[in-house]
Amino acid sequence: METFVKIRRDLHLIPELGFQEFKTQSYLLDYLSTLNQERIIIQTWRTGIFVRVKGTNPSKTIGYRTDIDGLPMNEATGLSYTSTHEGRMHACGHDVHMSIALGVLTNLVDHPIKDDVVFIFQPAEEGPGGAEPLLKSEEFTLFKPDRIYALHIAPEYPVGTIATRSGMLFAHTSELFIDFHGLSGHAAFPHLTNDMIVASSHFITQIQSIVSRNVNPLDSAVITIGKITGGTVQNVIADHVRIEGTMRALSEEAMKKLKDRIQSLVNGFQESFQCKIEVDFGSNYYGVINDESITNEFFDFARQYDGIQAVECNVAMTGEDFGYMTKEIPGMMFWIGVDSEFGLHHQKLNPDENVIPLMIQFISDFIGNKA
User: Fold this and answer.
1) Catalytic: 244?
2) Is the pLDDT reported for residue 1 higher than 70?
3) Over the chain, what is the mean pLDDT?
4) 178 DSSP β-pair partners
5) Domains of the chain: which residue ranges?
6) Which listed residue (16, 126, 320, 353) is catalytic?
7) Which of the two ends of the chain, N or C, has the fewest CB atoms closer than 10 A to its terminal CB?
8) What percent of the chain has pLDDT over 70?
9) May I ask the CATH architecture of the domain 2-170+287-370?
10) pLDDT at 370
11) What are the phi and psi torsion angles at 238 (to 5°)?
12) Is 172-284 CATH 3.40.1180.10?
């Protein structure tokens, strides 16, 4: 199992952004080339990879998806295998995800099970979203599984803890980019300008009423503005402001309400502030909804497995484009504890690597049990 810890560290060195995972894809293909080629079928899709491991007498196809991209941030772990790509880091644990997937795949090549298992190494989970276009690809039609599984590291849980739930696990999400265009001028003559800092400030305050006054209080949603860019110098009135944020909701209805109300406010603000406003909802991820029957089967297996503590967790406002897969294919996702002091997307995230051999064995046994 030391092989797969080394693989995780090798991958940690070369994080790449969505649809730019060229070194990552090459590394994965190099490893796959060392396996018994009579047992596998390999097909690339953009920077991703499909691998079918042939079963001995298949009656169905089991799917297992792992994400492969990194995040646009600098690493601050101080590890000997710190990212060599400046401004790039595997701060969401996708290096751990990939090493586990390769370990399970290797086990199934060396110890065949009855059914086929398709491994999907998916690019661009962090953005702009690889799952949706992958599902629409011709390659996917050749590898489409009958059910599908995926995991995600959870820094807050200890190694050996698995957490999931039936139904919605992760929320529907949408990016939010809004540009305000007005008229610049000297700070001493505001009446000759159209101040977009004022307009955008009123808008930011106003949109916070959408959740409290337009979304059903028995539903859940959140709008967060995380970045504001505007102006050039302190005594010049800004003619352009860009705000960037994210929206999350636990129902499709609530997400539609957020978007409709924002567009309505934009129309009103353009009139009241005499400006032009452009809205872009960017990448949208469908919520991860775990199949009830499949999740119950998973819990039944995990709760009797030595070294594993399976618990039911709460729904999270986290976004994950695996939701497009569970929308089309019965399946489920689960959290795995990695006992890190620092959370997901943190510059110092450092998962406990003991999770790698444990999860390789557990998932191999689980998939074998389902075949």
Assistant:
1) no
2) no
3) 97
4) 243, 279
5) 2-170+287-370, 172-284
6) 126
7) N
8) 100
9) 3-Layer(aba) Sandwich (3.40)
10) 79
11) -80, 135
12) no
